[in-house]
Design a protein that fits this description.
With about 150 residues, this protein is mostly helical.
Length: about 150
């Protein structure tokens, strides 16, 4: 199949095929940019976008604004690639579960966390376990807390 070899070949498919879950998922697995040619209905379908992001985290960039703000969709993407957090909205960077998933994959993403999250012992320790240099992004309150430092 053309989209298995070159995802963006989806642009030449019929309107009906650009709205077909299976066809578009195959294309997105090969190249997230293929979603540029997917139907609006798919890009706004939560279940479809969850599946697309599980296959290729780059799919998040093609989700509707509502789905880019959806906790589960974002958590799925960040759980696969913590670096995505740097482009996330402020509410995402203030969400403990999402930030914990991000720092477990890439400790340095702590730098994008809200002040409250950078003061969260669990999140900061998880970041430090992944990359000890992430401690430089921890809150001053934590870094001056004797019990935390010990």
């Amino acid at each position: 199949a053309a989209v298995e070899k070159l995802g963006v070949a989806l642009q030449h498919a019929s309107k009906k095929l650009r709205a077909d879950n299976e066809v578009v998922l195959v294309a997105a697995r090969q190249d997230a940019h293929a979603l540029e040619y997917a139907s609006y209905e798919l890009l706004t379908d939560r279940d479809f976008m969850l599946a697309a992001v599980q296959q290729n985290v780059g799919a998040l960039g093609y989700a509707s604004p509502e789905l880019r703000a959806d906790r589960d969709v974002v958590l799925t993407a960040v759980g696969r690639d913590g670096g995505l957090i740097q482009r996330a909205s402020p509410w995402v960077r203030a969400n403990r579960d999402i930030m914990l998933a991000a720092v477990e994959k890439l400790g340095s993403t702590l730098q994008y966390a809200s002040d409250e999250i950078r003061a969260d012992r669990v999140v900061v320790l998880a970041a430090a376990r992944q990359d000890v240099s992430a401690l430089k992004y921890a809150s001053r309150t934590l870094l001056t807390d004797r019990n935390f430092v010990l």
